Amino acid sequence: MFDPYVTAEVFLAGGLAVTSALLWAQWQARHAAQAETRRARRQAEQARASREKQLTDLRELAQRNVDYWNAAQQETRHLVARRLPSVIEAVVRGRPQAEVSGLEHPLLAGTAFEDCFAAVEDLVRQAAASVREEVGQAARAGVRGMADEAQSFLARLQMEIDRELDQYPEDSAHHQGLAVIDHFTTRALHTLQRLRVLAGSWPGLRRENSPLREIVESARGRIGPYGRVHYTYLPQTGEQHVEGRVVEPVTLALAELLDNATSYSGEQVDVYLRQVPAGVGVVVEDSGVGMNAFQRAQAEQLLQQRTVMDVATLADERKLGFAVIGRMAADYGFRVDVSAPSATGGVKAVLLLPAALLAPPPAPRPMPVTQPAPAPLPEQDAPDSASTRTSMGLPRRHRRGVRQQAPVGVTQEPTADTADLTALTAGLEQMREALRQGYRQTTSEGDHSDD
Fold first, then answer.
1. Are 37 and 151 members of one domain?
2. pTM higher than 0.90 for the full model?
3. Other CB atoms within 10 Å distance of the CB of residue 202
């Protein structure tokens, strides 16, 4: 027989062991469940964090796209409203290389938008420059055509004045009045010449080899206050002749220097000739206020370039003298310098004629065989042909000018499109005929109305 106490203890011990095993198993199961729960929670948190990060990235990407889109829209408006008008204005004002504002939004820097906007800007710049050049050429061609016609009429007027001057004594009132008219005609011709030059043409006259003294006197006769111009020269210098093809350009340039000197100085303007190793210098000194550093630099720039008239940026026509001189100097090979002040603080301009532009006197022309002229009236003295001035003090004009084609080597823009010369000529003839018929009709109507 088993001892009941022992049996009870055995059962209690077994139950305790079983209970302990069950509790241990339960604890392990609970611990495993808790670990799994924690792992699942961590995974859930990681998944949630990942989703939140993805959502945040998507939001940021969407915001960047929105900002990029808004920046592109604003930059496009800025291109149309600011950049392109600035480009066009810079080109129109003659500053094609002027800097204009760039990108307004740094977000687009280095992107395709920046490259595309820069390409559009370059295309607009090129298109504006091309249109500007075409407009300028067309305008200059029109100016040259009108100036050439007006110059032709003035040349004929001067020929008629010459005929009248030859028929009256120099001290007569009629002769003196014609001399004044002739002086104004000469100044008008000079104005048209400078207009032709700035329009890309040449002066329109070619002369014989002429002495320097005649060139100075001719230039003096083309300005208003000619009486304030005083010039001196040594005979061996003043009698040196200048090559005929450059006589008129040199005279034109010297007239501009004299006009500038007399315009900015109320005192006497001194002109003298100086022989230098490189050639002959014509020096013009005035007693005006002179030029400051900026004005001198601007003048030097104009004197060293072949300037043509720009209808888009046409400056004050009274300040285009240096541009005329610079173009003539570049085309014909002489130089003009205004860098040094005069002895009285004004402007000292030096026109240097290289030795290559000097020439021998022209060959004497054979005397024409004509009928003997009637003897002059005894109470009238013949005018002195050696004098360089009229009795009124006006500069005497020398009739040596001959209208010819532009000299070889002188650049000139075409006056019109020569692609179809026959059609152009026919069109001009039709226009002349229409104008002639209109003029005749107007004259006829005017005659009838007078009746």
1. no
2. no
3. 24
Whole-number Å distance between alpha carbons of 415 and 248:
21
Q: pLDDT tens digits, residue range 364-417?
A: 766 555 444 444 433 333 333 334 555 445 555 555 444 445 555 555 554 444
Alpha-carbon distance of 241 to 358, in angstroms, equals 6
Show which of 24, 41, 71 is a domain's final residue: 71
Q: What are phi and psi of 210, to 5 degrees?
A: -130, 145
Give the whole-angstrom CA distance, residue 137 versus residue 69.
44
Number of domains into which the chain is organized: 2
What is the CB neighbour count within 10 angstroms for residue 292? 9
90: DSSP letter: H
* Contacts (Cβ under 8 Å, ≥6 apart) of 273: 212, 216, 231, 232, 233, 234, 237, 238, 280, 281, 282, 283
Residue-number span of the structural domain to which 59 is assigned: 4-71
44 and 135 both lie in a single domain? no
pLDDT in tens, 350-370: 999 999 999 888 777 665 554
Is the pLDDT confidence value at 424 over 80? no
Residue 323's CATH number: 3.30.565.10
CA atoms within 13 A on the CB side of 399: 12
DSSP β-ladder status, 269-276 and 229-232:
parallel
